[in-house]
């Protein structure tokens, strides 16, 4: 049986998971793929810390160059992360004619164009399944299974930390800060959680999914990103009373010559499959013109799930190489570069949830609904709800929650600004999207 | 750009969907795959009925042989169905060196071994993504994305007709017969619905999934199959009261040297993702040793969704062929033939739901619990519930519903038979599995 050599760069959590999986399931994969995948080398600056996996002698090294240029290594697995040395090593691997597997979403979201071009120029494979969705094979599905579809929409819960926090906020009625602290103590959130909770991790993943679906590089700067840091428990509870669950959602939509990509805390109806995705689990719902709605669910992070996808990618390349050559050509392509534009955030049309603290003086309700109407904002439902807690309400104001019919973001923002200026509400309005 | 020719056999619902999709999204696929997929011929005995798609002149033919032996056709798409002429044509295509795409679950479940061997002998690809799950790329995920995993369990809702019937039974409190009739009128059930409602369609799909996951041909005769024809609305309602939803579930489990494959109406906890899969939608939850739980959801049948998967398969083969050769080797393999056995149905251990109509005489409860105990059957919870309707209860008997701790099927069956013989219950007990 033909042997394909693998070198791993980065022996952290995911790296150790990949090494463990490759060693454990080597025979099984050989049986399935008809090729023997051999772990040749693992490089990391730190090769003394116990990673919970027994590596055969002679595999661990601190010398990345010896991995990148080992002629017995066909596939380089980049699991260092970040956009520094990881980028240098990846380009070096591609230029040395090695195929590459990576889970590095930040690198692909920010330098994908350069990296995919290098893979193409060298005629090698680059697989990045684990960059989005951890153990969920969403990249593969989008690239291959749904290849015959025009992708109409993608809605994704792509960050486990945020989903864990939102789940506990809803189920236990706790405020954001308290749950974040608990998540940090439980190891579900980083000491510096901003990449997750401010939505940028989700945005990186959304950029990769949109680039793959539409064939052009989606610039990070064009994605409107709103995290969950300022989300109030009050709105989580009101949403629940209205039959919704708030999720940090990546929204990708195709409109003829434009694509809309954004990240927002979004009200999802309880009857929607995405509402059932709780705790650290991730999911993406993809609507194709032929397939209709399809959903992919699983663990979005973690050692073994991420390793599962990395190893699936290694298996693909190994199978290709065993047949004689890489299968280059199904990575992200730029066929639509310059042909599709990003929709401006202000122009995005959505349903909205709005919470106002309205003066309980007579006429207040009429006053702000008149302002909304003048801006073409149409109210689908409005109700004055019981205050969640007495302290949450300033005296003389009552909470009014509204669901707004599909409206351009800009129109609603202007209307709410005018309502605020009018003095009829007591604090800045809360505006959330509704799926 | 290299052109790859496609010939379609069978211009029925799915065939027309594939033809429409290939014509509509040809440019898009060329852009994504770097190969131009050209529909060359479509054969059917009936080429005059309007199928809702405009086919260019010269494509439609009643002569299948002219498709099978056209040198400009590289890929044959078999959408005739059944195990008769479809099998003949498929073998003829493989032997003529054509790669094949099929959605024919019955043919693969019953003659898969012969067909995969013919593909191997001829060094061509055979793809069968649409044989299970319609628009859900579950076959691809199992074959490729999860290739690095030992598959521990698969639980699937794989028949849209049954799921539609069960959803309406629960939501509207209607009996099976009434909903079946409505489903037939709405076109969601066949005039002869037995293949669906008796569970055999689900069993065909389970056989294919298990064969793929474990590398040996799973004989249909070894699968215990129970459909939903005899399912009482009473149990649907009681299950709901207990926090469960009844689904027709294919269960596939790996135990060392044995694999368990069965099809049963099964109580699924409402908090489980599979419980949220309603109406005609299908889903499969796959647990890998690395990935953990992953779930795939979408439309399990229908013209466009099934075409989506067929076209994804065509795209794969076309991409392979454009690179020089088929990618044979990732179909079902028989590496474990003779090494893994099917677990006998009696030996399968499961949690169970049991409903007994128990005599309301003093001591009856003690009598049957004693019998259960003697057979090692342990009761997790038991309650005497309100009768769903007065007519449903024979005078002198009260409904008792129990959840049973994991027990071998045989032990519970024997215990319940003894309870029935003892005269303490008024009718045959109801026994359902619990996930």
Characterise the protein shown here.
- The structure is a homodimer of 435-residue chains.
- Chain A starts with a strand and ends with a strand.
- Chain A contains 14 helices and 17 strands.
- In chain A, the strands form two sheets. In chain A, strands 7, 8, 9, 10, 11, 12, 13, 14, 15, 16 and 17 form an eleven-stranded mixed sheet that branches.
- In chain A, helix 1 packs across helix 12 (303-322) and helix 13 (364-374) runs antiparallel to helix 14.
- In chain A, strand 11 and strand 12 (292-299) form a beta hairpin.
- Helix content of chain A is 36%, strand content 26%.
- Chain A has 435 residues and is an alpha/beta fold.
- Chain A has three domains: 3-134 and 303-322, NAD(P)-binding Rossmann-like Domain (Rossmann fold); 138-299, Dihydrodipicolinate Reductase, domain 2; 347-434, 2-Layer Sandwich (Alpha-Beta Plaits), CATH 3.30.70.260.
- The model of chain A has no long low-confidence stretch (mean pLDDT 93).
- Strand 12 of chain A pairs antiparallel with strand 12 (292-299) of chain B.
Structure at a glance:
2 copies of one chain form a homodimer. Chain A is α/β, with parallel strands linked by helices and 435 residues long. Chain A folds into 3 domains: 3-134 and 303-322, Rossmann fold (3-Layer(aba) Sandwich), CATH 3.40.50.720; 138-299, Dihydrodipicolinate Reductase, domain 2 (2-Layer Sandwich), CATH 3.30.360.10; 347-434, ACT domain (Alpha-Beta Plaits), CATH 3.30.70.260.
